[in-house]
Amino acid sequence: AAGVIQSPRHLIKEKRETATLKCYPIPRHDTVYWYQQGPGQDPQFLISFYEKMQSDKGSIPDRFSAQQFSDYHSELNMSSLELGDSALYFCASSLDLGELFFGEGSRLTVL
Amino acid sequence: GQQVMQIPQYQHVQEGEDFTTYCNSSTTLSNIQWYKQRPGGHPVFLIQLVKSGEVKKQKRLTFQFGEAKKNSSLHITATQTTDVGTYFCAGRYNTDKLIFGTGTRLQVFP
User: Fold this and answer.
1) By the CB < 8 Å criterion, does B98 face chain A?
2) How many independent structural domains does chain A possess?
3) Digits of tens for pLDDT over chain B (110 positions)?
4) Distances (CA, A) of A62 to A16, A46, A79, A86
């Protein structure tokens, strides 16, 4: 069965650089979520999209933006990277507000 | 803002002992989900509770949703080494977003 696909799996950036993470949700799922998880922390909700429209916003910094495209894939853009942005970024998708299916995550390291 | 707290933060048990984690929300939830995350892995869905006072069982796992729909618990009977991981509750309010609890990290010693 198809799962949530995230790329890249690992990313190393310098401070003040820009990074883009991609997510391909499970086909026919109507909602995409982005979470940020620091070491030993719980996943922090960043943003969600329902049928390609932004539906909810959490603790997403102004330096970050996200969108969902016509093919349903989503991208998280992070600019002016800071050391504190180093984390595991998860994308998840769901159908009808049911269980979330998570991708393997993208590990961002900011040096 | 909406917050979901879990206790304890860590729990170390001997294999065969029971384990319980408790989850509390500052406001009423529309439903609650539970996830397990193994070290180095991603959260994996365990169950969803929707009704006030609901109790669901999955083999050795028992999940409860409080009458006021503000708290929940997960109880594991006779833990096994395969139960090792971090257990998160995640509360859904009247929006799309799912707020994760602070998690309880379970370590099981053989």
Assistant:
1) yes
2) 1
3) 678 999 999 999 999 999 999 999 989 999 999 999 999 999 999 999 999 999 999 999 999 999 999 999 999 999 999 999 999 999 998 777 889 999 999 999 99
4) 14, 11, 9, 16
CA distance B103 to chain A (A): 6
Identify the residue whose tokens are 């719980």: A42
* N-to-C CA span, chain A: 37
Phi and psi, residue B72, nearest 5°: -155, 160
Tell me which residue in A42, A97, A103 faces B100 most closely, judged by beta carbons: A42
In chain A, the largest separation of any two C-alpha atoms, in whole Å, equals 39
Please answer yes or no on whether B98 and A33 come within 8 Å at the CB atom. yes
User: Whole domain around residue B97: which residue ranges?
Assistant: 4-109
Token output for B9: 């933060």
Q: What CATH number corresponds to the domain at position A100? A: 2.60.40.10
Burial of B96 (0-12, 13-18, 19+ CB in 10 A): buried
Domain range for A66: 5-110
CATH number at residue B47: 2.60.40.10
Greatest CA separation for chain B:
42
Question: Which residue type, as a one-letter code, is found at position A14?
Answer: E
Could you give the number of structural domains in chain B?
Answer: 1
Calculate the CA B80 to chain-centre distance.
17
Residues 6+ apart with CB under 8 A from A57: A46, A47, A48
